[in-house]
Predict the 3D structure of the following.
Amino acid sequence: MADERPAGEFSAWLAELQGALRGERGSDVPCAGCTACCTSSQFVHIGPDETATLARIPAALLFPAPGLPRGHVVLGYDERGHCPMLIDGQCSIYEHRPRTCRTYDCRVFPAAGIEADKPLIAARARQWRFDHPGPGDRVAHDAVQAAAAYLAADAGGPANPTQRAVLAVEIHDAFLGPDDVTGETVVITPGPGTVRAAIARAGAGAPPPR
Ligand code: SF4
């Protein structure tokens, strides 16, 4: 299809996103001019340690982040739903953009098989197509989607689609195990305790999602 976009090899993408979520790197999304995530009425969390970012945003645009300790703030959006730091279609603080923006990757939606709740982002996310050149790519992708399906069915799972998709990536290892016969890595159905432990580990290291 003409509007399909290559999302990359799944396992490589997965490793990159996990590194971004651990704070080791930013996401390297081939946005190609798309600003859907900057124009979709999203609050952007900024932590108190992000001093270079905070120094570049007028204080009047920042508000205390609900439910988070003092010093955590959110950057709001204007009456069009645009981030106020988006000027002439470009991020005016790109080199110092918030960590939330650095780690945001809308490929997480097709990875998890979840529809985004923001129309512009959902339209873009539907265009991505992952490659699965090796069996590890396919089984990893299936494990992320199995984790997302588990979280969707679990009353305690995140209701927010972004949070659920990110958490599915973070806990997908719990849905991988050896096949009884061949020993190859396959998708398994873990027990609730195993999933709870994986969620607890993810929660310990994850930054607050957008
Ligand atoms: S800070 Fe920059 S990258 Fe982040 S939402 Fe605003 S314009 Fe987009």
About this structure: Residues 38, 44, 83, 85-86, 91, 93, 97-98, 101 surround iron/sulfur cluster (CB under 6 Å). The chain is about 35% helix and 15% strand. The chain has a mean pLDDT of 92.
